[in-house]
Amino acid sequence: MSNVTVIGAQWGDEGKGKIIDWLSNRAEIVVRFQGGNNAGHTIVVGDKTYKLSLLPSGVVQGKRSIIGNGVVVDPWSLLEEIAKVGAAGLSVTPELLVLAENACLVLPLHRELDAMREDAAAQKIGTTKRGIGPTYEDKVGRRALRAIDLKDPISLPGKIEKLLAHHNVLRRGFGHPEVDAVGLLKSLTELAPKIVPFIGSSWRELHAAKLAGKRVLFEGAQAVLLDIDHGTYPFVTSSNTVAGQAAAGSGVSPRDIGTVLGIVKSYTTRVGEGPFPTELKDAIGEKLGQRGHEFGTVTGRKRRCGWFDAVLVRQTCITGGVDGICLTKLDVLDGFDELKVCTHYMLDGERLDYLPADANAQGQATPVYETLQGWSETTAGARSWAELPANAIKYVRRVEELIGSQVLLLSTSPDRDDTIMVRDPFVVL
Length: 429
Ligand code: GDP
Ligand code: IMO
Ligand code: MG
What we know:
The protein is α/β, with parallel strands linked by helices. It folds into three domains: 4-102 and 198-256, Adenylosuccinate Synthetase, subunit A, domain 1 (Adenylosuccinate Synthetase, Chain A, domain 1, 3-Layer(aba) Sandwich), CATH 3.40.440.10; 104-195, Adenylosuccinate Synthetase, subunit A, domain 2; 264-421, Adenylosuccinate Synthetase, subunit A, domain 3 (Adenylosuccinate Synthetase, Chain A, domain 3), CATH 3.90.170.10. It has helices at residues 16-24, 75-87, 108-120, 132-140, 156-173, 181-195, 202-211, 244-248, 283-291, 310-320, 359-364, 390-403; strands at residues 4-8, 29-32, 41-45, 48-52, 64-67, 72-73, 97-100, 104-105, 199-200, 216-219, 259-265, 268-270, 304-306, 308-309, 324-328, 338-347, 350-352, 366-373, 406-411, 419-421.
């Protein structure tokens, strides 16, 4: 039996939250390792729906949860989320949740800078305006505040000064009022007693878990096409979203991240700006969006929709380190007469079986499709392979062939239990 690392293999919102919740039944610890509250992971259990942004999805099953060092954490937002799930009946106490002491903090000034830049930019990224990019910049620039700084009132004022020396120059440039160091210190000092009880060590906890033979589930946010290195740069998020980050972002060996499960939607969606070769700006795209309820969990924005792009997923399975996939939202394709799948692109008269790195070329690559027969039967709520219509099985098998990766799980509705296990991801491949 091994650990499992779950990552998104397209542009996000593939259904990672649902699958992590389902898998967490058989894990003892769930760990987030990158991103922040730009993520929105939806978990549906019967008539209850939970939308999680910072909390690992394991909290729904009451599993020990770690927010790893690779995550950027808006501590006010974390407290709000704890209160929100508390009202829905989930108690998230320091006995359940650990916040890595070396995780960097998202402050209001990061959210404001994110918004100032987006509002001023001629070519927008379409960020979630949660301050994620600016916080990672400060992390790499070695001036970010970290969770552990909330425990050290002596050093905190100096760290705030250093941070503001950088930010106030930027704010002046945008014509925005400077941040007052005294005010920021006061709000962090008021916040500290509420956050400090959660602060701990991700790597030490995970090392102890390994020695005790506990099974760990690593929960990715965003997805490989939004990865800062491997995504559609510059229309990406500011962290590495590939499986390797599970190790760096939590403090374990790369050998201990286990089976890498890529979550793949049966079609393609994207929120925000950037190239999207198979995007459908027509009635079919609208139909996919309506049937799939494709509205952003975090910002409520309408998601762009298109046919399944096997070129992209083949590539993300390679760059992301995927061992096998979970194909989600198969039910959204119910009732289409025919379905298209992109098998390659044409660019300047040449056939391409990968997405080029250049943003202009990405925008110009023309998808070439293979047409498959749809099915009129419903797959919604199917819980076994035997319940699937023949053409749905053909679709799944063709996807596997084209992307060069095997389907381990299938998902047929938002509900936890509407999941089909083809092969157990906890069993080493
Ligand atoms: P995540 O960010 O990858 O966790 O995905 P989101 O939660 O942002 O978006 C996925 C949406 O699809 C959520 O509303 C889920 O409840 C829903 N969902 C997940 N799996 C399925 C599925 O198999 N079928 C349908 N119809 N909806 C699904
Ligand atoms: P989950 O975990 C989909 C997108 C934003 C924007 C780009 C950069 O729910 O799959 P950022 O705020 O991160 O600087 O925005 O990344 N984005 C997501 N799209 N799902 C997400 O997370 C996303 N998190 C960020 O829309 O295009
Ligand atoms: Mg989401």
